[in-house]
Design goal:
By secondary structure, the protein is an alpha/beta fold. It contains twelve helices and eight strands. The protein has an eight-stranded parallel β-sheet. The chain is globular and about 45 Å long.
Length: about 300
Amino acid sequence: MSRKEPHFRGAFTALITPMKANGAVDYDGFRTLVDFQIREGINGIVPLGTTGETPTLNEDEEEKLIKIIVKEARGRVPLIVGAGSNSTKSAVSYTKRARKLGADAALVVTPYYNKPNDEGVFLHFETVAKEGAIPIIIYNIASRTGKNIDLPLMERLSLIPGVIGVKESSGDINQIGDVIALARKRKADGKNFFVFSGDDALTLPLLALGGDGVISVIANLMPAKVAALAKTCFEGDFASARNLHYELLPFIKAAFVETNPIPIKAALGMAGLPAGPARLPLGPLSERNKTALESIVKDYAPAIRFR
């Protein structure tokens, strides 16, 4: 790599993209959210992912959002910019853009819809890592892509120069444990391979097994609490970590009662932070779930510091 590889550890927020009532991107609101995250002690931020509604953003919007977050973060926290596509050519272009605009790494999802075979997945990530020239974190989420990266394929991917980790969203604790064991082996050989939870409910078990952190949806609203959960795990204080896990669990469940990011954007709006509606084809939160979510957000209000 032509730049020094950053070290990733702790709680990272999969940041939403706030919208105005008319559906336009709320850039001022985005600045507010970035500032809120950093002031609340988050360890890093991941814009332009699934939670950021990237499939509905155009390239001009994406570029402006990257420029804003790089300027607002001012190097205070690492930035992992979403750069995935089911087109290898497009994924290369997005990773190059992320590098050019100042990101520390790119989050690249397994190609979706095409349903590539293992060799296609390997060649995709090899090409993106080589041509993008920025550290790559793989995003493994079969529920959205239709393709799980199993351990033998992950072993191959972890050896690609420039591939430095995975956001593991398989939901399979056995697979997560195997991937962490693989990461430990790579690190013993002198190669970074970070393992992040892609599921808020599995942050505690992943960290207990020796993982590196979480790319969190609920941290949009409660960054300090999610960062504290990671910190207590790293310190070996698992009694406190369990207490935080169970404290956050009702909100974790509520945040995924409908397709992400519909509930988390609704929750942010209820708490007075910029969020706005999700863009079509994502519709508004149902009235039944909205009522339940309002009650939960109200319960958490004393723990949320808005300044």
